[in-house]
Design goal:
The chain has 153 residues and is mainly α. It contains seven helices and no strands.
C-alpha cells in the first residue's frame, strides 16, 4: 500500500460501495450489483488476490463475492446466508454490512464508488509490478485499462 491515506481511502470506497449495493437492493432487484459486476471483480478489492481462494480474502471482497453469488437481491440476510453456504461467514459480518449501509451517503453514486475501487486496484497492481521491476507489466496494467473517470486520490 502506498501510504496510510490511500489505505483509508480504499477501505472507505469499498465500504461505501457495499453500502450502496445493499441500499439499492432494498428495492427488490439486482440491477445495481449486475451493473457493478461489469466493472469490478472481487480481486479488485484490497486484501484479495485473484489466485487465492475466497477463504483467504479479507472481509470486503468476501462480502462482494457473496453478493455476486446470491440469486436474491443482495441484502444483509441474503448475503449472510450466501456467506454461510460458501463457508465464509463470520458473526461480525451482518453488523459490518449494516455499518457499510450507514456510511453510504448516497446509494445513487454507486458508479462513482465502483470506479474508485477499480482505480485503487489498478494503482496497487501498477505499484506491485513497479516494485518488482517489471516495467512491461506496469505498462500493460496502465495502458490496457482506460481511465474510468475522476476519482480523488
Amino acid at each position: 500500500m502506498g501510504n496510510i491515506n490511500e489505505a483509508v481511502a480504499t477501505e472507505d470506497a469499498e465500504q461505501v460501495l457495499i453500502g450502496a449495493i445493499l441500499i439499492d437492493a432494498a428495492g427488490g432487484n439486482r440491477d445495481t450489483i449486475n451493473q457493478i459486476a461489469t466493472i469490478l471483480q472481487p480481486w479488485n478489492f484490497q486484501g484479495c488476490s485473484k489466485n487465492d481462494k475466497p477463504l483467504y480474502w479479507s472481509v470486503n471482497p468476501r462480502i462482494y463475492y457473496a453478493m455476486l453469488q446470491t440469486p436474491d437481491p443482495p441484502n444483509i440476510i441474503s448475503v449472510s446466508l450466501q456467506l454461510v453456504k460458501l463457508n465464509l461467514f463470520d458473526l461480525k459480518y451482518p453488523a459490518y454490512m449494516a455499518e457499510c449501509e450507514y456510511k453510504c451517503p448516497c446509494s445513487l453514486d454507486w458508479e462513482y464508488y465502483a470506479k474508485a475501487v477499480k482505480e485503487y486496484s489498478l494503482q496497487r497492481q501498477a505499484r506491485y509490478y513497479a516494485n518488482k521491476g517489471d516495467l512491461k507489466r506496469v505498462h500493460q496494467v496502465t495502458s490496457e485499462n482506460k481511465p474510468l473517470g475522476p476519482v480523488p486520490l
